[in-house]
Amino acid sequence: MRPLVLLWACLVLPGYGTLVGPKEISGFVGDTVSLQCTYGEALKTHRKYWCRKIGYLIARCSGTVFSGEYGQEGRVSVHDSPWELRFKVILRNLTLEDEGQYFCGIQRLGLDDSFSVSLHVFPGISRPTTQLDSTSAKDTSLVRRSSTAKSGTSIPMTRILAPVLVLLALLLATGLAALGSWVLQRRKEAQLTAETERKEKLQLSHSNTPLFSLSFPWL
């Protein structure tokens, strides 16, 4: 009895033969995008599938496509490579209606091993095929990276102009300080010159004043 319980726990509990893959993919209308997922040795012989997630409280699958099959008029396919312990999901000719939540999963006894994938579809010019796999640490879309790059084009110019503006402000402040110091020095020199001239005039007026310290009675 105990071995059966252990076997059931291995098959049902999450983490057994864990399935790993990207959580988000994106592309333009008309693009072909793909994602690769890896799984454990224990899930090698199980059927792999891709389906659209529906429902809120209880999530369910819609339009399930299993490995080796084509769905949505050949626009969706799942290719399993057991010898590599990975499988690839290919989405062709994207439309705006394809955007939404999906399940990438593996059938097994008890609960399926699956995870949710967000698909973003953008209008515009088609881009080359986007491939994502579980070995990549980047799950962000090409569109978001390109839009971020475009929005950041003005940042380098700002960084270049900022030091120049700071330098000009410092030079202006230094020039104003030097000008103020020069004006103050000239004013002090003018005041000193005026004071010297005033003292000289006073001394000259004193030297020309007649002295009547002696008195002459016969005059």
UniProtKB/TrEMBL annotation:
It is found in: Membrane. PROSITE patterns: IG_LIKE (PS50835). SMART domains: IG (SM00409). It comes from the Eukaryota. CDD domains: IgV_pIgR_like. Residues 14-118 form the Ig-like domain. Keywords: Membrane, Signal, Transmembrane, Transmembrane helix. One of its GO terms (cellular component) is membrane. Residues 1-17 form the signal peptide. The chain crosses the membrane at residues 160-184. Coiled coil: none annotated. SUPFAM superfamilies: Immunoglobulin. Pfam families: V-set. InterPro entries: CD300_family_receptors, Ig-like_dom, Ig-like_dom_sf, Ig-like_fold, Ig_sub, Ig_V-set. Its main location: membrane. Gene3D superfamilies: Immunoglobulins. This is CD300 molecule like family member g. It comes from Sus scrofa. The lineage of its organism: Eukaryota, Metazoa, Chordata, Craniata, Vertebrata.
